[in-house]
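Narrative of accomplishments. A recurring question from our advisory board has been how the design workflow behaves on a single, concrete structure rather than in aggregate. To address it, we present the structure tokens for one chain from the evaluation set, followed by the sequence designed for it. No filtering or post-editing was applied between the two.
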């Protein structure tokens, strides 16, 4: 009897929505701060305006890819390859991917996937720290 009640409670918790939504939105905002300031500075200085459009567009595409993959996983159909998901994250869609992971509860438990995802997020953060504060010192090494 207790196990049945636990399963019912777990099912109800899954349907409640995103757990700790405020904290996760705060984290998303904090992670988007450096790229946001960086692309705004690029656009404001007249160097390039396109990154200002790429992050939201890539995030939307990434969110839609996650939605499709989750839908396909539920219906046991052809899945979106992880390489495609990671490529879309690398091209600037990681904010949408982070949002999609929480909204759809997709790809959140697979450790190997999460390691690559967070490496991509950190790569973007390092790039913008380098651009904004270090005068491209890190990327001159390559």
């Amino acid at each position: 009897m207790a196990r049945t009640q636990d399963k019912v409670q777990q099912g109800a918790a899954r349907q409640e929505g995103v757990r700790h939504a405020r904290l996760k939105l705060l984290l998303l905002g904090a992670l988007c701060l450096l790229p946001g300031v960086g692309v705004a500075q690029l656009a404001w200085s007249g160097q390039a305006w396109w990154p200002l459009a790429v992050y939201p567009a890539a995030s939307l595409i990434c969110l839609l890819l996650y939605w499709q993959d989750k839908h396909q996983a539920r219906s046991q159909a052809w899945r979106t390859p992880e390489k495609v998901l990671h490529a879309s994250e690398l091209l600037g869609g990681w904010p949408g991917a982070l949002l999609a992971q929480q909204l759809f509860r997709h790809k959140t438990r697979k450790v190997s996937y999460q390691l690559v995802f967070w490496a991509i997020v950190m790569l973007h953060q390092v790039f913008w720290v380098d651009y904004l504060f270090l005068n491209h010192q890190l990327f001159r090494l390559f």
